[in-house]
DNA sequence: AGAAGTAGGACGTGGGACGTCCTATGACTT
DNA sequence: AAGTCATAGGACGTCCCACGTCCTACTTCT
């Protein structure tokens, strides 16, 4: 029916105390860590866990559900529960919700997402500019070429482009996070009805990044990335969802002398 | 008893198919989004949800548990379920697990954490250097002064220092992420038995950042942050847990010409 | 030996019961 | 009349048990 018939309000009093369920969750994690179970290793049965920990299967299941939501365990119906990889996919739900629930106004919901991506990718690209495999350039060029052709593949190429650079730097966490941000941005943008990108402009910005990488100039690379994000911001601003918040003017010439 | 008595292996075949439970989770999220329930708003009763969605309370509870793990809802025993803030605290479990389970070897488990923090804070500090409240400097100086005195408060001051800068930039997500990384790094470091920081050196590095902010030089600020992280890395390397992976030499002079 | 059938294990879902915790209401006291 | 205390009801927490579904591994048949 209605949300709630009682007089409850948004009062934030009395934070939730540590629950029994949380304790179970912790015990399960400790079990994984103590036994050094690698990703993919089979976990004890729900019934075993229930007996070992001394709670009902129901409680175990709820704890497992929480762990599953974080990607810490992976459950396969009829087969068993396994140690998960805790990959960034688990955070998609979290970040997507956060993105579309925060900021009651339409303005600037995606800004934060884009900013963090820009910060990470700027630094990452600078580092890659200093040191990378020679083959990387060719791979990036191929992506840019695909971007020039309109269609759904252009977006895929865009993602691959950024992922290639992030992967090159060798920091898994950074790579996964930028991928996550890309996916969530795309999802939120689509939901709010953002504008389609113009293929030529997008390809041009990416080409500039490749050129900077070829030259090996870290500052130029950072500059190119900033300009790429300026482009994205401009696109977003023109979208149906009212533009960004303009908390601070976007800086494009940061690392360029 | 043992982890599992059957012959299961690490086989990664057959990814888990979409579950009914996941569907329920999605419906609950949609309910929040559709009704535009703000953070802190009361959710329908578990029983109501069960009737509305047409499943048992058990299933609802499991879905809620998953949402709770992500901070999307907050449950208060005996009172009700409320819309959560999806704050970064929810990710602590995830990131901590990820940090201590990845990389079977001792070397370089914390590296990724530190690198991402460095990337975000470098960019953030650069921006703050260009534009910030005058009062910020005094607040930062106070933190540095507290850092000079040994004791548990030094660590608190350290965290506050970084949080002040991140908050100044105005990007909530970036701020929360760096805070999260700081907390997880600290927790993981403590667990592995890292070395204690030397108060004078730490304060000195932070002072350098403040000086750069005062001068308003973005490049100098970035440089100071890089040097600060070089210091942290050096400290970590000397710790009991075997040092980092050295995937790529740390770059300290990136934005400095 | 290879393929189909089968038994058992493990997770998924449902329903009910009872305990615990919290709040709001009303009675009582001052 | 105002404040305090007791109480009733609502809502979440935990548990038990049953049955369905899914998957694997073993057995059996060809």
What gross morphology of chain A would you assign?
elongated
What Rg of chain A is obtained from the alpha carbons, in whole angstroms? Answer: 23 Å
Strand order of the largest sheet of chain A: 1-2
| Largest interface summary | A-B, 92 and 92 residues
- Average predicted local confidence, pLDDT of chain A: 85
**How can the largest sheet of chain A be summarized?**
2 strands, antiparallel
How large is the count of helical segments of chain A?
10
Attribute tags:
homodimer, 257 residues, mainly alpha, two-stranded antiparallel sheet, 2 strands, disordered C terminus, DNA-binding
Structure, explained:
The structure is a homodimer of 257-residue chains. The N terminus and C terminus of chain A are likely disordered. The first copy, chain A, is mainly alpha-helical. In chain A, a hairpin with a 3-residue loop joins strand 1 and strand 2. The first copy, chain A, contains ten helices and two strands, in the order H-H-H-E-E-H-H-H-H-H-H-H. The longest helix of chain A is centred in the last third of the chain and has 21 residues. In chain A, helix 4 crosses helix 8, helix 5 packs antiparallel against helix 10 and helix 6 runs antiparallel to helix 7. The interface between A and B is large, with 92 and 92 residues. Chain A binds a DNA duplex (30 and 30 nucleotides) through helix 3.
């Amino acid at each position: 029916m209605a949300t709630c018939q009682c007089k409850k309000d948004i009062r934030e009093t009395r934070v939730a105390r540590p629950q029994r369920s949380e304790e179970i969750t912790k015990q399960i994690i400790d079990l994984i860590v103590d036994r050094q179970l690698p990703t993919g290793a089979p976990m004890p049965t729900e019934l075993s866990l229930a007996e070992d920990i001394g709670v009902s299967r129901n409680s175990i299941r709820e704890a497992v559900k929480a762990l599953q939501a974080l990607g810490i365990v992976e459950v396969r119906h009829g087969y068993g529960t396994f140690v998960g990889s805790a990959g960034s996919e688990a955070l998609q739900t979290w970040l997507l919700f956060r993105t579309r629930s925060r900021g009651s106004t339409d303005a600037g919901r995606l800004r934060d997402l884009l900013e963090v991506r820009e910060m990470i990718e700027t630094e990452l690209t600078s580092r890659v500019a200093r040191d990378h495999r020679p083959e990387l350039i060719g791979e990036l060029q191929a992506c840019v070429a695909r971007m020039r052709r309109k269609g759904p593949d252009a977006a895929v190429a865009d993602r691959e482009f950024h992922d290639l650079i992030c992967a090159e730097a060798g920091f898994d966490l950074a790579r996964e996070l930028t991928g996550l941000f890309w996916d969530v941005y795309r999802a939120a943008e689509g939901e709010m009805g953002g504008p389609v990108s113009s293929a030529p402009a997008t390809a041009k910005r990416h080409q500039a990044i490749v050129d900077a990488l070829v030259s090996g100039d870290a500052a130029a690379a950072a500059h190119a990335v900033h300009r790429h994000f300026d482009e994205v911001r401009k696109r977003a601003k023109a979208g149906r969802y009212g533009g960004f918040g303009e908390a601070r003017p976007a800086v494009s010439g940061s690392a360029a002398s």
